[in-house]
Amino acid sequence: MNSFTLRLIAIITMAIDHIGAVLMKDSSYNICFRLIGRLSFPIFCFLIVEGVFHTRNIWKYAGRMLLFAFISEIPYDLAFHDTLFYWKAQNVFWTLFLGVVLMGICVYVPIIKDEIVLQIILAAAIAYLAYNVQCDYDAKGILLIFILGVLRKFGPYIQGIANGAYMYLLTQNTQKFAGFSGILIAFYNGKPGPRKLKYFFYLFYPLHLLIIYYIFKI
Questions:
Q1: What is the pLDDT of residues 25-58, one digit of tens each?
Q2: Is the CB of residue 104 less than 8 Å from the CB of residue 59?
Q3: Contacts of 171 (CB under 8 A, 6+ apart)
Q4: What are phi and psi of 85, to 5 degrees?
Q5: Residue 114: DSSP 8-state
Q6: CA neighbor of 91 nearest in space, from 60, 63, 66
Q7: pLDDT in tens, 98-109
Q8: 135: helix, coil or strand?
Q9: Which of 42, 91, 192, 212 is the most buried (most CB within 10 A)?
Q10: Residue 23 predicted with pLDDT over 90
Q11: Is 190 exposed, middle or buried (0-12, 13-18, 19+ CB in 10 A)?
């Protein structure tokens, strides 16, 4: 499957997850929604790595992620914390932005590019930052992006297996179900697919959170 298909799966499962977390939190069906939603984040991490290697301008790419991190913060805080500003948790775009910065440096900065020890140190530092500012998925998300980036040269099948192992060994409870997203990653064919909806995928995150919040308040 191509990048477009993976993105579509990721945003659909993400929306299901957020519906479960906000609108179905007191329902017996909550766990079903949350388990389905576990598939989304590793796919986004995989696509971030692919984006770093295929973008024409890594820093413009990082800039887009940063812009949507700011745009998404209020919708995120409203949907999950019922307030305009909640400083104890940051939306997932911050995690993805830091992942782009990490992989951008590892791939495009000569002094770091071929030095795995320096890359590990950098990954640990950015993971520590993500943990302390409490980004969504915090250090675990950054380290997953790094692992998928390091293993990219071995192909999506190996990346998929690594994702499954990582989620099973290093996460708890329902988050282990995210390992099944490795099956979808393994079927990636390296093609982008349709490009017309590029910004729809960026906008979907804050817009669907606002819709969920509006329904929740009704």
A1: 877 778 899 999 999 999 999 999 999 999 999 9
A2: yes
A3: 140, 178
A4: -135, 120
A5: T
A6: 66
A7: 999 999 999 999
A8: strand
A9: 42
A10: no
A11: exposed
Question: Residue type for 118, please?
Answer: L
> How far is CA 170 from each of CA 32, 130, 144, rounded to the nearest angstrom?
22, 17, 10
Token pair 């915090």 is at which residue?
138
Which pTM value belongs to this model? 0.93
What residue type is assigned to position 39 of the chain? L
* Tokens 């009704």 belong to residue: 218
* 3-state per-residue secondary structure call for 115-130: CHHHHHHHHHHHHHHH
| Bridge partner residues of 90 (DSSP) | 135
**Helices 198-217 and 3-18 sit at what angle, rounded to 10 degrees?**
10
Q: Name residue 40's amino acid.
A: S
Please give the backbone phi and psi of residue 27, each rounded to the nearest 5 degrees, phi first: -95, 150
Q: What is the length of the chain?
A: 218
Token pair for residue 110?
């000569």
